């Protein structure tokens, strides 16, 4: 009798463990797969709506007209358009980030704030205490690497020569990738106007991307820095390197 009761108890416990395991697997699938599908759809809609709000011009497809190197285009844009204006940040979603290294069609909306209500829905958040595009200092952004759109999944793949672009109501800001570092979650100095040098007056305009590291953990933070090298106004249209991504959301 006792043995039978013990076997029954073991059977119940086994079924409970199996059920718990299935639930854990379902949660993991939801977290790592379904949240990305939902977030991608929301971010695509937000990017498309923002481009329409900017009322930027239609542009030809890649290959239509002369295409210059990113360095040559930056030099010409500096000559044609001069110093970049300081972007306005006066709405919840105010910019688009283009990173060709993350994919030819990579474009994601940027919103004010870095709380989960931003990072889990519209993807990329702007640290409100940091500067704006075109302003001397540090325009710092945060985003997930493996859930809710995994907007910075490939942040560790940035390399010398890569360009990153920020589109606002003023126009298109072109940044040149500079370096990457790994820090602890408590290293807030990366958000200073001059990273790691709080109180120092900035002389250049930076774009800083921050995310968790390594993948699937929150043990450390990966920080990627880029420096502003040129600007072109909205009516001039996007730089050649992001024309395909621009068209993908503008149509």
Polypeptide structure, described:
The protein is of the alpha+beta class and 251 residues long. Helices cover 31% and strands 25% of the residues. It has four helices and eight strands. It has helices at 2-54, 70-81, 116-119, 243-250, and strands spanning 93-98, 107-112, 124-126, 137-142, 163-167, 171-183, 205-213, 220-233. Strands 1-2-3-4-7-8-6-5 form an eight-stranded mixed barrel. Strand 5 and strand 6 (171-183) form a beta hairpin. Residues 65-81 have a biased composition (Basic and acidic residues). One of its GO terms (molecular function) is hydrolase activity. Residues 56-84 are annotated as: Disordered. This is Sortase A. Its EC number is 3.4.22.70.
Indicate the topology.
Elements: H1 2-54, H2 70-81, E1 93-98, E2 107-112, H3 116-119, E3 124-126, E4 137-142, E5 163-167, E6 171-183, E7 205-213, E8 220-233, H4 243-250
Parallel strand pairs: 2-3, 4-7
Antiparallel strand pairs: 1-2, 1-5, 3-4, 5-6, 6-8, 7-8
EC number: 3.4.22.70
GO molecular function: hydrolase activity
Transmembrane segments: 12-34
Brief summary of the model shown:
By secondary structure, this protein is an alpha+beta fold. The chain is built from four helices and eight strands; from the N terminus they run H-H-E-E-H-E-E-E-E-E-E-H. The relative contact order is 0.18.
What is the tally of beta strands? 8
Poorly predicted sequence stretches spanning 5 or more consecutive residues: 20-33
First-last Cα distance:
73 Å
Radius of gyration computed on alpha carbons:
22 Å
Mean pLDDT: 85
């Amino acid at each position: 009798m006792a043995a039978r009761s013990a076997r029954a108890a073991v059977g119940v416990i086994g079924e409970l463990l199996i059920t718990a395991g299935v639930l854990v697997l379902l949660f993991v699938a939801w977290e790592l797969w379904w949240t990305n599908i939902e977030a991608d759809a929301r971010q695509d809609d937000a990017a498309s709506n923002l481009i329409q709000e900017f009322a930027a011009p239609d542009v030809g497809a890649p290959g239509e007209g002369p295409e210059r190197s990113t360095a040559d285009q930056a030099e010409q844009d500096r000559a044609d358009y001069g110093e970049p204006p300081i972007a306005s940040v006066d709405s919840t979603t105010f910019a688009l980030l283009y990173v060709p290294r993350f994919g030819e069609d990579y474009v994601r909306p940027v919103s004010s704030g870095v709380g989960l209500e931003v990072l889990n829905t519209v993807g990329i958040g702007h640290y409100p205490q940091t500067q704006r595009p075109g302003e001397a200092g540090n325009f710092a952004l945060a985003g997930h690497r493996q859930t809710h759109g995994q907007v910075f999944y490939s942040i560790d793949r940035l390399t010398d020569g890569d360009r990153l672009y920020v589109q606002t109501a003023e126009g298109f800001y072109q940044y040149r990738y500079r370096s990457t570092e790994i820090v602890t979650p408590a290293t807030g100095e990366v958000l200073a106007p001059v990273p790691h040098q709080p109180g120092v007056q900035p002389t250049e305009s930076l774009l800083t991307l921050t995310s968790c590291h390594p993948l699937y953990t929150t043990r450390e933070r990966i920080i990627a820095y880029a420096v502003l090298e040129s600007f072109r106004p909205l009516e001039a249209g996007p730089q050649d390197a992001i024309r395909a991504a621009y068209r993908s959301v503008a149509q």
